[in-house]
Amino acid sequence: EVGETGVALDAQIGLARAYAREGRYAEMRRIYLAIIGQARRSAGASAGDTAAAPASELASAPAGAPTGARAPLNVARRFEAYALNNLAGYESEAGDPKLAVAYWEQALALLRAMGDSRTLVTPSLNLAAAQMELGEFDAAVGQLEELAGRCEREGYGSHLGLALVQLGVARAAYGQTDEAIATWERVLALGE
Questions:
Q1: Cβ(107)–Cβ(123) under 8 Å?
Q2: At CA 90, angle to CA 157 and CA 86, rounded to 5?
């Protein structure tokens, strides 16, 4: 038996990633959903919090998975956010940006609640890209503006550049050419 919850969850993440590399997406998805379910049970989450994944899928943990009673809340919730982010990426690539958006929004809510600003960058960028794919340009621009502001306030220079580049892309796609140019010029000024 694995004594550390984080180690066991990390092993499950590794297994899910290996399944994805092998094209075994149903198994990958089952493991990620099990991790999410474990984290939610350990946090005492209500069934209403599992809207993006059916409760029946969330309940099926792989053999040897840690129980919610042994899972420290912060570790379990961090892994939940990671699993949600990975599932979102898979769903986006599989052609379901709407489900991807739902997963990324859940991951970001967890990361924000934990105050984990640096880990917000990748899911925020991914969420904005999926929102743009769905034609939700206002939401994408808002997401990227929020991310850029956070990166600037907290001194994450390289992350600020990434957020601003994507904000320029979103503004250009939305027909805001002057704003896009100004945003990209701001990125170039960061390096001066």
A1: yes
A2: 50
Question: Between helices 157-173 and 137-154, what is the axis angle to 10°?
Answer: 160
CA angle 110, 45, 114 (to 5 degrees): 20
Closest CA to 145 of 113, 111, 174: 174
List CB contacts of 5: < 8 A, sequence separation 6 or more: 66, 70, 71, 72, 75, 76
Give the separation between CA 93 and CA 113, rounded to whole angstroms.
27
What pTM, to 2 d.p., does this model score? Answer: 0.75
CA 16 vs. chain centroid, Å, equals 16
Residues 48-70: pLDDT tens digits? 444 444 333 333 334 344 444 33
Radius of gyration of the chain (CA): 18
